[in-house]
Amino acid sequence: MFDFLSMKKNEAKHRIEELTRILRAHNHSYYVLNNPTVSDFEYDLLMHELDTLEKLYPEYLSPDSPTRKVGNDLSSVADTATELPSFPDNGIVEEFKQYPHKYPMLSLGNTYDPSEIYAFNERIQKATDKKFTYSCELKFDGTAICLTYTKGILTRALTRGDGAVGDDVLLNVLQIPSVPHRLLKGGNYPEEFEIRGEIYMPYQAFDKLNHQRELNEEPLFANPRNAAAGSLKLLDSNQVRERGLECTLYHLIAPDLKAETHLEALAMAASWGLPVSEHARECKDMEEINQYIRTWDKKRKSLPFATDGIVIKVNQLDLQRSLGYTAKSPRWAVAYKFKPEEALTRLNSVDYQVGRTGAVTPVANLDPVQLSGTIVKRATLHNAEQMELLDIHLGDYVYVEKGGEIIPKITRVEISRREAGVPEAIFPRDCPACGTRLVKDEDEAKHFCPNSDFCPPQRKGKFIHFISRKAMNINAGEATIDQLYSKNYISELSDLYKLTREQLLTLDKWKDKSADNFLKSLQESKQLPFHRILFGLGIRFIGETTARNLADAFKNIDNLMKAGREELLATEDVGEKLADSLLDYFAQPRHRKVIEELKEAGLQFSENEQEKEPVSSALAGKTIMITGNFSVSREEMKKYIESHAGKVGSSVSGNTAYLVAGEKSGSSKLQKAQKLGIPVVSEDEFYKIVETEQHKSK
Ligand SMILES: [Zn+2]
Fold first, then answer.
1. Which pTM value belongs to this model?
2. Which CATH number characterizes residue 64's domain?
3. How confident is the model at residue 346 (pLDDT cuts 50, 70, 90)?
4. Rounded distance from Cα 506 to ligand 1 centre (Å)
């Protein structure tokens, strides 16, 4: 480890530059070449060292240092790269700007029929006497993007839109690690060029996202493609970073490019640091194309991301140019789509599963059948409407498909094999678990059991949610809850805190140690902040973020329980549904009793005020804007302002009391502040103002 303090200034500068270079190279190997050159641990150490040095010597902090999170600090990047548009400080935009595509963004003609690939080949052969080849590439199943680089800097990222005009989602694309903000130094790239490709979400990130959404009771994404497209359209770029998107680029558009073939062009793009698929191959005839298709139709099943076909392009750029375009698509390319694998099997029965939230899902029990390398026994029928559309009868032969979805689904019925007199599968009117009449909101596809307090799966689900890692983090699993529940040891959440060691030791395979661990984690859960408990209660529609917002706004459970509809609706992110859900929940005496008991058990039902108690009221009622780099991090600066009872604004407006301008401040903000007559002060001046005010108030 370095002895940072005895380091001389020029040594620090040198080391910062060195670390920046090393980390950039590692990022490139990791994200672009998919070939990590160091372990995560070593990488973290280097990153930590750089971060420490930058804090000690902020004068050497480069705006595009690998340590900087893009979302919050872009305004300073904008100053060094004049082509970059300016971004909101908090990374949230109100809407996307739209721009016309320089060249229309067409879609490819695509086919499931191999004979059309032969016809395509014949058309190309007729069009030229010269020798030519094809480029075969995997077709990534994501959402299309068109990137513009100006002088080596990413300046625009347009979605396909309607093909003529797209949304500029640059701020979001900047959150995707494999997309370079700057091309590699020394790259011989054109002054300005476009490159098109696909933004996609690998299966792992997709599963993680949907799992999270399930916990938060948000609607799930049907497949990785939808999830990628949805993520790219988020207005809050901070959220995009967590979504784990990836990018692959496949079409370079640069009029003066010194490349003869498409594959050469892609290799050039890769040499500038751009992510290009490593699976593209040159094929000289139909035989090689067929070979490529056959290989990948198998191999794609083990790829960590979704692909839905092969794109075949004429490789020679001059031939591409002479073939040109139809109104809809290029004449020099075609997409062959893989058939989604399906299997025919018999449907034996339908289960209606009641989830933690009371949603009822029909699940088909099938004769086991082989599909995409796994044995499938169950498939989802989604909801009542879908069952009606399919006209499902018990004993029907049905087609099962895996597609991009995780759970196999039934796509159609083989009516010709239906036996006479078999009964229709009818969605139940009452809850299969507790018999309560099901309800269905008009804007939701699913039926719900409203009996959330007594319906067994919902009740058990409440415990499982309460003990989960993101809530109370209690050292137990579903099986333990099952046992405690069936032994009648628990019926309300508060009963968990009444469990005795003797009771625990009666559980299957429980010894002293497991009981100790369980009791210890119960004790520890009493230290968790209010918002975790609020989330843990499992009130419908309250996810982690909402719980945090509510805890921030109301400070304690009593205020929240007292709050009326209007007051709830005035809270960030609280809509009608959520307000009603809260009111319903607190209106029930049994819930109030549980909360009372949990309080008595020692859980935190108010925000820890001590931490948030302001140091002084020097900035009370004042909104402060900050821009640029300070001797402390932006986060620390924000905390400093809040600790003196000030508010940090998100944009310069008439209400702004001061604009604190650090080094490399955003010029647009300075101009705006001057226009509005708002005092612009330096970091040091600002500290002096706060001190003076503090003295005054004493
Ligand atoms: Zn029920």
1. 0.51
2. 1.10.287.610
3. very high
4. 29
